[in-house]
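As agreed, record minuted below.
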Amino acid sequence: MPMTPLENRIISPGRPPSVDSDPSLPTQLKVKVNCDGNYVTLVAAFNITYQSLVDRIDAKVGRFSSNAISQGTMRLRYRDEDGDFVTIESDDDIQIAFQEWRDSQKQQNHQGSLGEIELFCLSAD
């Protein structure tokens, strides 16, 4: 039986799921990225790597901007529980951002739904 193009798709590997995963929380997250007032959205697994996330964001942002995280002209950030911007530069940083999101959602029932986190692309200067 010949393989269809869909079966040939390669999905980039992520990190193994964390041991403290809560089955009542979603396994994927809608990532809403605010880039100077323009928004791009994508769905990412909780175990996505930094490079994979940056590649996907850069591809979407590239439709309306010449800036890119991978070029160093923008920085990827999230807002922590105190409202401060924290720069994301590694797989560990992404996991910390997602873990803070999980911790903030423990009080709510998201079973079967897709959670949403807001990230920010800010100028690197």
